[in-house]
Amino acid sequence: MRPLTIAMPKGRIFDEAVKLLRAAGYRLPETFEESRKLIIDVPEEHLRFVLAKPMDVPTYVEQGVADVGVAGKDVMLEEKRDVYEMLDLKISSCYLAVASLPNYQKGELHPKVASKYPNLAIQYFKEQGEQVEVIKLNGSIELAPIMGLANRIVDIVSTGQTLKDNGLVELEKIQEITSRFIVNASSYRLKGKEIQRMIKQLQAVV
Ligand SMILES: Nc1ncnc2c1ncn2[C@@H]1O[C@H](COP(=O)(O)OP(=O)(O)OP(=O)(O)O)[C@@H](O)[C@H]1O
Ligand SMILES: O=P(O)(O)OC[C@H]1O[C@H](OP(=O)(O)OP(=O)(O)O)[C@H](O)[C@@H]1O
Question: Name one GO biological process term (predicted).
């Protein structure tokens, strides 16, 4: 049988997720975190790791080219992929918030919000009864209000340092975020034993 394929986000979640898998009893090579390879096989554990952009992990899992994956709740809410969300791994904890310059006053004629999460932002403001134009950015979101691209942003806050260093203030908290263990529906049927074992072992250490 093919190894169990895990889609892992590159970047900050990766190290924490690897640490968790090790704590759960999976023996992963010492050089694991240093490689630039995008596919890493660990035959001893019958595992294959696929390193994708964080936002793309649910796509790999939904399409079944990866059996399981690790994705932030922010990504799950933005992408709305058809996957099973099986476990809160409680890593990479942060929250989504609306922020602006301190002098922001509600009620502008054409409200503009910059975000890496356009779907999520539109849905959030709709729920608040506000129609906004969302300007999709790919990073450095905090630049937008300073540069006058948008009056507000929807972005991740963790320590609050980035907001502070850029003179922005938090207006509303939207949602707490942690990383989730996600599973492809067919894989769950076909490789249920292996996947359930992984979930059980992870559950014991989260
Ligand atoms: N400052 C933070 N502190 C803790 N967790 C965070 C923080 N920023 C993002 N995260 C979580 O980590 C995930 C991955 O974030 P990361 O910054 O590594 O990737 P990214 O910036 O979205 O990706 P890329 O820039 O490669 O497209 C996010 O989806 C979120 O769940
Ligand atoms: O509250 P803090 O601890 O300062 O963390 C929040 C920052 O971290 C993330 O950015 P990231 O480092 O991923 O950079 P990006 O601008 O490329 O998204 C997020 O988009 C914030 O900018």
Answer: L-histidine biosynthetic process
Question: Which structural domain range is residue 125 located in?
Answer: 94-176
Q: Ligand 1: does its nearest atom lie under 6 Å from the Cβ of 158?
A: yes
- Same domain for 26 and 57, yes or no, is yes
Judge contact between 66 and 111, C-beta under 8 A: no
- CATH number where 141 lies: 3.40.190.10
Same domain as 146, residue 104: yes
pLDDT digits (tens, 9 = 90+) for 104-149: 998 899 999 999 999 999 999 999 999 999 999 999 999 999 999 9
Q: What is the pTM of this model?
A: 0.96
Given ligand 1 and candidates 92, 153, 177, which is best to mutate, with the most ligand atoms within 8 Å of its CB?
Answer: 92
ipTM above 0.90, yes or no: yes
CA distances from 53 to 13, 50, 104, 109, 128 (A): 11, 10, 33, 36, 31
Q: Does 183 lie in the same domain as 163?
A: no
12 Cα: distance to centroid of ligand 1 (angstroms): 6
What is the atom index within ligand 1 of the atom nearest the CA of 75?
29
